[in-house]
Amino acid sequence: MTAMLVSASAAAPAGVVPTDRAGPVLVVDGLKVAYGNATALHGVSLEVHAGETVALIGANGAGKSTTLRAISGLLKARTGTITFEGRSIANLAPDRIVAAGIAHCPEERHVWPGMTVEENISLGAYLCRSKAEVQRRVGMAFHRFPRLRERARQLAGTLSGGEQQMLAIARALMSEPRLLMLDEPSLGLSPKMAEEVFEVVRSINAHGVTVLLVEQNIHNALSVASRAYVVETGRIMAGRRSEDLRGDPDLLRAYLGG
Amino acid sequence: MDLFLQYLANGLVIGAFYALSALGLTLIFGLMRVVNFAHGEFYMLGGVLGWFVTAHLGLNFFLGLALVAATMATLGWLVDRFLIERVRGQGEEPGILLTIGLSIFLVNATLLVVGPAPMKVAGAFAEGPVFIGPIIVTKLRLLAVAVGAAAILAAHLLIRRTRLGRAMRATFQDPMAASLAGIRTKHVYAATFALGCTLAALSGMLLASVYSAQASIGGLVSLKSFVVVILGGMGSFAGAVAGGLLLGIAEAMWGGYVATGMVDVIGFVLVILILLFRPQGIFSARAERA
User: How far, CA to CA in Å, does B263 sit from each of B92, B203, B250, B254?
Assistant: First the structure.
């Protein structure tokens, strides 16, 4: 507790040094991914440290989502290593990566439209064999997202975009991940709803879950993340603390056209 | 009137087998999007294997049924993992070609091993009529319908109530989301294909206890199962049951009142009518993924 108080009040270190409390949990090094003959990632390297929220920012098609999809095992890595908590997870099946402690909340939510909200949530804990434990986690999800409790029996396909995003996040948390990867959680949402989603992300992070966030809205991304990597055409062009990036309009303009 | 009731009863009996067989197809066709032209051959194999274990090996009917179910589930699993897996996610045409090839292989392999003669599954007990009011049904038919109904109920409970069933529904609604939740979608596909094969084979064995099994029956069974699936709506459980009963009754009425020679035409007439007036099928609320 004392240590946390001290580190919170200490002067922030300058440069690319992460706001780190316990060393890197996720290390991606030289990751190359290709769709057929088209190379999507040309050697991406990044680190995420325990307790951080890190954003990947960049234009559409830069390779942000592809990076997440490779980490969660949906795509095969051609070369490069992915290490989570000191263990290589490159090219494991997605279910093994979920079991290792990484949850990936995909772009466009991908809730199961023909299932109820409650079924969607409880299936997020598919790998948990204990019914009582799943029930406990469902209870926690409803506690965190009271709106979803109101809609527990409703089919997920009938929810609004914002509610579906909350449901997708709630489902991803059901595996009790230590690293949560969120892909464009504000996509298609009103500014007010987007702010609600980012408030949820902050609170998840405050509860000790490390977050890796992909976001096109740079303002939102930098307001949540402590650090960000700028991705362009399948490469990491820069890695900076959020306030440094905010203070560097030239860099932002150069890579993001903003 | 008595004659009408008798036709109705005959129709319901046949319809129950159509429903069971179509259930297997609707799982594979409606949910996995594999147009399985080998479906009728799995049905045929169920009958031939049923004959082999009961009439040839002399096993008890129910033991034989369990053995056939287990064998066909294994076969279905292997077919999916080693054949269907290769064409998954490449549209429907490769799957069609693959299952047509598989059906040709299965028919000819069966012809080679057991020949073209009809084979009768040894029933659970001797043939004997049961009188229900004015209707006459044989005991074997009643038993076969009861076993068929139990299989339908079991499949329903499997999909609605079990962990595997929830994984199936999740996988078919959104395979990527299922993977990210930790579901091994490869296993789910294989299990679904295995279940579809098993239901077809059970139907084949039950019907072969009433009539007989024959290596060449598969093509007609495939077509009728497609008819039932289109009638009821793709992927619809209740639809497969209702469609099966409807087809059975329509055939029995047509055969009884119009002409026995053209019974197999009636299903296709129904399909044309359904496609004209209610293309999503009787039970689907809307045309999904059309």
Answer: 30, 20, 9, 6
